[in-house]
Amino acid sequence: MLHKLLQRLDETLDFPQAEAHCDIPCKIYDPITAQIAALTVVRMMDLIQEIAEAYPQPTPADQAQLIRLVAEKEKHAEAAKAEVRVIWGDYFKAPQFEKIPGVHELVHGIMLQGSRCKQGIDREMGLEFVRLINNFAEAFWQTKGVETFTAVCPYPPALAVVYPKLG
Amino acid sequence: MRHRVYRVNGDSMSPWARSGDYLVLGRFLPRHAEPGRVVVVAHADLGIIVKRIVAVSANGGMRLAGDAAASTSPDTIGLVHGEQVIGRVLLRIRAGASACRRSRAARRPSVSRTASAAPRDSTRACP
């Protein structure tokens, strides 16, 4: 009864939270893992396309390879989403939200885009996934006061990636 | 003290308090620094946390711990001083449990606690 009353008040007054986390807050956050995972998604899309074009009559070996590529695409799309969720959920707090007011929409967009990448092999979907995660990386480094630059990653799929200027 | 009611997020104080429970705080004075008491603290690294005092040093520094085994360790939390304490927990209001179950969950045999240090259970009137 009392709890329900407080819950209703909470909806209006938004009581502050007292954290009772069991996690060890290691403070190690870096969006590069999400960026690499997103690049991997695009790479898997490319390799899937190559198999489809090179082997119109796939052998069992081709099919086995295709299954592996699809599984990796799925895994890395999910990994990218998870990495972004952890940074947004654990690292971002009031000061970071103030600095990056659009981060909620950005993270939500990344979640949806990651799912689109899992659902198909449209490369454009993958490119958009990388672009959104690059935007997230830029926002993350901005909260740290670290400048960023964009460079093409020196490996396939050779896409533009946001990196921090460290040093 | 800006706020008197806090919502618990996480289960490091389980079974005494679980995620979604509410805590009503009272002012924290130096004499309230005693083992067994539950406090809400503004921690420099961990944010606003709820933990139990497990030891108090001669200079008033407090070691805090969660009730759950998997809680962040006292060593990770470090010594906490009175000025960091937002308030002591006077009342805990739990979600979705019967009054009697709540009352039993409030007991914690592993920490010796004086009657004055024990936060008042919202269900203490339960027969």
Q: How would you portray this structure in words?
A:
By secondary structure, chain A is mostly helical. Chain A contains six helices and three strands, in the order αβαααααββ. Chain A has helices at residues 2-13, 32-54, 60-91, 94-99, 103-119, 123-143, and strands at residues 17-19, 148-152, 160-164. The longest helix of chain A has 32 residues, at 60-91. Chain A is globular. Chain B has 127 residues and is mainly beta. Chain B is built from two helices and seven strands. Chain B has helices at residues 74-77, 99-105; strands at residues 5-9, 22-26, 38-43, 47-56, 62-65, 85-93, 120-121. In chain B, strands 1, 2, 3, 4, 5, 6 and 7 form a seven-stranded mixed sheet that branches. The radius of gyration of chain B is 14 Å and the shape is globular. At the A-B interface, helix 1 and strand 1 of A face strand 1 and strand 4 of B. Strand 1 of chain A pairs parallel with strand 1 (5-9) of chain B.
Could you provide a short overview of the structure?
The complex is a heterodimer of chains A (167) and B (127). By secondary structure, chain A is mostly helical. Chain A is built from six helices and three strands; from the N terminus they run αβαααααββ.
